[in-house]
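Build the 3D complex.
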Amino acid sequence: MTGRSLRWTVGLAAALLCLGTGGASLAEEDAAAEVDCAKPILPCTACHSAAVTKAYAKCLIKRWEAPAEARALKSPFPVTPKVLQFGKATYEIYCDGCHGPLGDGKGHVAIKWEVPVVAINAPIVQAQTDGDLFWKISNGRGAMPAWGALLPEETRWQLTHYVRTFKAAASQ
Ligand code: HEC
Ligand code: HEC
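Done.
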């Protein structure tokens, strides 16, 4: 997903959203009123409707906990170099625009469109179990899309294992 025409499309979509509602702030107010943190944004709306995505910032006020039964979930897939390689490839397509290549929350889409994103290399995230992270990736909350609707279970475990590599990188 690179190239000038792609950027134009996103820019144009944002511009149309502003035109259609008579200004970015009005669009943001409408979007903010409709936000329900328990119903996460759709994967494709997340980056393609900046005004809507921004409104999900309020979801971050309350700490996100996975349910107790998610904690004990174990990956059926052993961690191999191949699994991490697949995880990285998927991460680069769907995640690093928001969370950044290092998982520090400084993705280029997030910075450009002020997406309210979090650092997933942080100790508070890395201290969680694989089950917690897999559940969160699958179910989403607020501006974090529910990837379970789009990506198969195996891919979500690959992502979970790949997200773990940020822990090692962050402590170096
Ligand atoms: C992490 C943010 C992000 C997510 C999530 C995302 N996109 Fe994108 N998308 C972008 C960006 C940024 C571009 C523009 C790329 C560029 O200019 O280099 C883009 C470009 C595109 C384009 C190309 C537009 C063109 O001009 O050809 C299509 C189509 C597209 N996205 C569809 C989708 C669909 C479908 C989904 C859901 C599966 C999705 N996107 C999810 C950020 C995202
Ligand atoms: C549109 C931006 C966006 C995209 C794209 C995105 N995320 Fe997130 N992610 C978020 C936000 C925002 C949160 C915090 C949600 C909350 O706490 O309400 C989050 C939270 C998380 C968490 C849990 C962090 C915690 O606090 O425990 C994990 C793990 C995660 N994301 C992984 C991923 C993975 C893997 C992908 C790609 C499949 C992805 N994210 C794509 C925005 C995004």
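The first helix runs from residue 4 to 21.
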